[in-house]
Amino acid sequence: MDATGLPDGTVYPILRRLERRGVLEGRWEAEATAKREQRPQRRYYALTEVGEASLAEVVERFPTLSRLFAGDPGEAGDPGLA
């Protein structure tokens, strides 16, 4: 997977596990869209209410870490210089 640098065999099992636990909800895009664009169907994921609550808890417990993952490392400071 380009975005994470992790192989597909790592990312997709994690997504399926999160889906089974009720944290994520996955849905396939319309088959017609994939056919029109001549590619396989994509699966889209969204947080469920349980996932939203879990995310809020993590953000509250680990504010610096959550800012880093949110793409705003400037507010968190440079951890390499701490």
Could you characterize what this model shows?
This protein has five helices and two strands. The chain has one domain: Winged helix-like DNA-binding domain superfamily/Winged helix DNA-binding domain (Arc Repressor Mutant, subunit A), CATH 1.10.10. Helix content is 52%, strand content 12%. The C terminus is likely disordered. The chain is globular. The chain has a two-stranded antiparallel ribbon with strand order 1-2. It has 82 residues and is an alpha+beta fold. It starts with 7 loop residues before the first helix and ends in a 6-residue tail after the last helix.
How is this fold's topology laid out?
Elements lengths: L7 H13 L3 E5 L2 H6 L6 E5 L1 H13 L1 H7 L3 H4 L6
Helix pairs in contact: 3-4
How would you concisely characterize the structure shown here?
The chain has helices at residues 8-20, 31-36, 49-61, 63-69, 73-76; strands at 24-28, 43-47. With 82 residues, the protein is an alpha+beta fold. A two-stranded antiparallel ribbon has the order 1-2.
Poorly predicted parts: 78-82
Mean pLDDT: 84
CATH superfamily: Winged helix-like DNA-binding domain superfamily/Winged helix DNA-binding domain
What pattern of helices and strands is seen along the backbone?
A: HEHEHHH
Give, in spatial order, the strands making up the sheet with the most strands: 1-2
Largest sheet, strands/sense/barrel: 2 strands, antiparallel
Per CATH, the class reads Mainly Alpha
CATH topology: Arc Repressor Mutant, subunit A
Q: What is the CATH architecture assignment?
A: Orthogonal Bundle
Any idea what the radius of gyration is?
17 Å
Q: What is the terminal separation in angstroms?
A: 31 Å
Helix content: 40-55%
Secondary structure: number of strands: 2
What structural class do you assign from the helix and strand content? alpha+beta
